[in-house]
Amino acid sequence: MSLLRDRMTRDMERAGLSPSTIDDYLRAVRGLAKLHRKAPDQLEQDDIRAWDDHLVELGLSPSTRQVYHSAVKFLFRRTLFRPEMVSCLVRPRVISKLPRVLAPSEVGQLLATFREPRYRAFFSLIYDTGLRISEAAHLRVGDLDRTRGLIHIRCGKGAKDRQVKLGNRLYELVQAYWKEVREKEAGKETLGRESFLFVNRAGNPICITSAQKALRKAARSCGLGSGVTPHTLRHSFATAQLEAGTNLRVLQAQLGHRSITTTQIYLHVSTQLLLRMPSPLDALVL
Questions:
Q1: What is the dihedral of CA 240, 246, 250, 251, to 10 degrees?
Q2: Is 92 a residue whose pLDDT tops 90?
Q3: What confidence tens digit (pLDDT) does each residue in 142-173 have?
Q4: What residue spans of 225-264 are helical by DSSP H?
Q5: Which of 54, 82, 152, 157 is catalytic?
Q6: Catalytic site residue from 132, 152, 165, 216
Q7: Is residue 184 annotated as a catalytic residue, yes or no?
Q8: Would the N or C end of the chain have less CB density within 10 A of its end CB?
Q9: Which fold has domain 104-271?
Q10: Cα separation of 44 and 41, whole Å?
Q11: Which residues pair with 170 in a beta bridge?
Q12: CA 164 → CA 126, 144, 149, 154, 188, distances in Å?
């Protein structure tokens, strides 16, 4: 399996897949091999069918099954050159649900709950820019352009760079975190433009898993429940922008969406936009 894993990894790197996607795909293939107790290149199509049935029995969501399917399809199509093996896999249908959005007052309450300045600054940045958590976690000092009021996102989703707005209040908050925490923890370490903006106590880039746990804990503490995720803050940012009158195309560029269709979902979750719509019946003289 190790040789096959290395081949698949090289193929995924050549295809430009992100490190997190590569890890997800390898995990899915390991699960396939573990289920049948043999290497994936020794499997038959009936084994693939049985594996898919197993995923359903496990109760995995359609979106998770889509990732698993994509992983195994990549393996057999791109690495093993046996596309017929995965012709039996039907893309699971994902039910589109409206994302959860927090009101500005709820976001303020949430951010105030963080006791650690590191997480308060980190999630304030995500809310104020709409960045994905992986993008925020890999920001470097030099990515913040105070003069132009911009943040440069390096190699975001889809391996694309983009720029987002750096607000005055956000800059002040991050600067305060930097002086209060980052410089003290760095000690004698030289901090330059290539230094990571957010790090853990060991000096490595901030751990995404730990940050997610801290967010869930803060959300529960202030009565918002356990369903608040970093993407909830991203959704809340996008909705607030639309309600403030931001052009949909501008918002698409800020969020780094490939398609405007993805951005349009926020038109459905903005209650303020709905409430501004005129009621035709009100205009009738009865």
A1: 20
A2: no
A3: 999 999 999 999 876 666 788 999 999 999 99
A4: 230-243, 248-255, 260-263
A5: 157
A6: 132
A7: no
A8: C
A9: hpI Integrase; Chain A (1.10.443)
A10: 9
A11: none
A12: 11, 10, 9, 11, 32
pTM for this structure?
0.74
Q: Identify the active-site residue in 231, 249, 258, 268.
A: 231
Read off the pLDDT of residues 8-31 as tens digits, 9 standing for 90 and up. Answer: 999 999 998 888 899 999 999 999
- Residue 75, both tokens: 């393996």
278, two tokens? 């005129």
CATH 1.10.150.130 fits 2-86, yes or no: yes
Only one residue has tokens 């931001």, namely: 246
157 is catalytic: yes
User: Which residue has 């009101």 as its token pair?
Assistant: 103
257 catalytic, yes or no?
yes
What are the residue ranges spanned by the domains of the chain? 2-86, 104-271
**Residue 66: what are its φ and ψ, rounded to 5°?**
-60, -40
